[in-house]
């Protein structure tokens, strides 16, 4: 190996390690702060205490906001799957005119900041006398999260052999039976991944939720947004640590159930 190749390899390793540190470091700091025994945020923590995790589960308002977020996220996940899977099929298997325009339309929300979608939803709702509510939040988050489902399912569909569907049809199976018994099992890893990413994104989203959620039933990200303005205790770090743990558990379940390496096949 030439000296320049060795230098390039070590530079690449150093840049990769630094990038990973930037990604993981803040989360590790938040987790460490959540065990701070004192009533204010400090790093490094002066000791070890689980009092703030106990405070989270003793706070009824936070528990209610968690339930709201779970309910909203499940609804968003269901809507995105019902719309995203047929849309991905149309984009990959369709032969109609305007398919490129359809792809651009479906994926365009991913190019927009969440705040833009939230404000646009709020203004449009005001124009048609549709106030901020759980329904507006679900619809707005569905628009924001739909590209995740479409892109993941499209990537998986692009790798599937359409001859399998033709073989199923030649054996007498209808389109619905072919989809249920041939296509759907092959899409399972992509559907699991799309469901997980959509749920996590809807659960953690604050930019859209801030403008479209019901003030009487605020989801967890909005509740945290208001809490951080008036509370400097590590309870915020404890809630954030629980969300980090939730994301990790969801991805671990997917990795064990279907294997993350299969998503790109």
From TrEMBL:
UniProt key word Cell membrane: yes
GO cellular component: plasma membrane
Domain of life: Bacteria
GO biological process, one term: transmembrane transport
UniProt keyword annotations, A-Z: Cell inner membrane, Cell membrane, Membrane, Transmembrane, Transmembrane helix, Transport
CDD domains reported for this sequence: TM_PBP2
Entry keyword Nucleus: no
Bilayer topology term: Multi-pass membrane protein
Signal peptide (residue range): none
Start and end residues of each ABC transmembrane type-1 domain: 66-254
Record's subcellular location: Cell inner membrane; Cell membrane
Transmembrane segments: 12-35, 72-92, 104-130, 136-158, 235-255
Pfam family name, one: BPD_transp_1
InterPro entries: MetI-like, MetI-like_sf
Family membership: Belongs to the binding-protein-dependent transport system permease family.
Protein name: ABC transmembrane type-1 domain-containing protein
């Amino acid at each position: 190996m030439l000296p320049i190749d060795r230098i390039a390899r070590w530079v690449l390793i150093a840049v990769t390690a630094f990038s990973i540190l930037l990604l993981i470091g803040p989360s590790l700091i938040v987790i460490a702060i959540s065990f701070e025994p004192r009533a204010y945020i400090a790093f490094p923590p002066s000791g070890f205490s689980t009092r703030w995790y106990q405070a989270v589960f003793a706070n009824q308002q936070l528990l209610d906001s968690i339930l709201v977020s779970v309910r909203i996220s499940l609804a968003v996940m269901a809507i995105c799957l019902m719309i995203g899977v047929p849309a991905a099929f149309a984009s990959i298997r369709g032969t109609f005119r305007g398919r490129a325009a359809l792809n651009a339309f479906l994926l365009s929300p991913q190019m927009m900041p969440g705040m833009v979608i939230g404000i646009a939803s709020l203004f449009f709702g005001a124009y048609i006398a549709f106030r901020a509510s759980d329904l507006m939040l679900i619809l707005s988050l569905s628009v924001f999260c739909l590209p995740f489902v479409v892109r993941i399912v499209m990537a998986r569909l692009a790798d599937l052999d359409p001859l399998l569907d033709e073989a199923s049809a030649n054996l007498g199976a209808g389109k619905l039976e072919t989809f249920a018994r041939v296509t759907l099992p092959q899409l399972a890893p992509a559907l699991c991944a799309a469901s997980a990413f959509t749920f996590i994104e809807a659960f953690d989203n604050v930019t859209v939720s801030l403008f479209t959620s019901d003030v009487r039933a605020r989801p967890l990200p909005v509740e945290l947004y208001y809490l951080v303005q008036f509370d400097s205790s590590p309870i915020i770090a404890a809630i954030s640590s629980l969300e980090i743990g939730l994301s990790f558990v969801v991805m671990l379940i997917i990795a064990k159930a279907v294997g993350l390496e299969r998503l790109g096949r």
